[in-house]
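JOB MANIFEST
job_type = single_chain_structure
chain_count = 1
residues = 441
[input]
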Amino acid sequence: MVSLIVASRNSPLALRQVEEVFSLLPLIKYRLLPLSSYGDKHKNISLLDAPPPNIFTKELDEILLRRRADAAVHSAKDLPCPLPEGLTVLALLPAANPQDALVSQHNLPLRKLPHGAAVGTSSPLRRQELLSRRPDLQIVALRGNIGERLQKVDSGQLAAIVVAVCALQRLGLSDRITEILPFPTHPLQGHLAVVARTDRPDLRKIFQPLDVRRTWGRAALVGAGPGHPLLLTRQADIYLRQADIIFYDDLARDIAKTYSATKVYVGKRKGRQAYSQETINEKLYQAVKAGRKTVRLKGGDPFIFGRGGEELEYLQQRLVSVAVVPGITAALSAAALAQIPLTKRGQAASVALLSGHPAHKIKVPQTDTLVYYMAGTTLAAVSGKLLRSGLPPPAAAVCVLNASLPAQSIIRTTLRQLPSLKIKDPLILIVRRTAENDAEI
């Protein structure tokens, strides 16, 4: 019979969570290794002021990495993202009630709390929601285990506290709930997570039946390159052929339509956006949870002005495993197709990839070559910034429109003449800082 050493924080709630996990694995014996986390030892640290992401997990992580324990059980929302190198989540258990609850003196609901009442919370999101409904309230940083938090209400130190419904339910304290609050909550609230070293496939087999992610699909952030199908990578093609659903941007439209998956346009063009970024993030997450092989197809490279980093973080925070497939970014393709070396020995040793939009955020760093994305509607502003930075008016500027596509065109002009161009198509602007290189571009 398998016997494991299982690390846990030593609070009553944490210990109950371990019991909950192993009640689902009756044939697995375990010995508990209770620990005080850094957060448990330092209750003076406010959780409302961006505490370390591993405030409740660091000691348990170290125990695992030192091989003094086989696995650790956590509230999933306490996990840092990403986990320390060498650790992995073996199982994400189904969520208990993910809602928030108000516990108050005299069972007063939120709307009836006295004006200026002191309300305790440990979450910036909860603080925001409280103040959006009752801006008069005094929000107090809440620390301690559930019993200690309830005592602050019972003793009159606080008029009310906000805590997770599942925490009260797990401890048999549901009768303390005054009301369920209609607040958005942490995406992993209510979930428990089992963490172990990555070199323990034997444990993965034990805990996999508990993992809700076994029915999930997979996610991939895929770079479509500049748009020409032959400049798509072979790896990108594999993911696209296997996809059940493709969420694609405007510049990846022609590539997306050649694949048989369900296609969802989520692009932005000329100020018109199909969906907000928050909605796109959630659509990706829900597609994965529905068991679909999900591809987010982005023009160029996912991590160059494509918000791929935001989408990656959003999914990883929800414990979705994400593959990232690089793509040829527009700066490289535009320069190569226009036969402009972005670097050249003895002449250009540094390159900056910059956003040309919005106009008031345009930057001019001290690099030899400057490449501006999304500058079609801000050429005058870019030109003005470059001239004021000291570049001469005759300095060469090259606009590459629709790089790699049949409609590709290249306009070679100067900084002085740049504002006179009237361009509607997507473009890349390339400028060299040194005048002696102007003839090259």
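[summary]
The chain has a mean pLDDT of 94.
The chain is about 25% helix and 25% strand.
exit_status = 0
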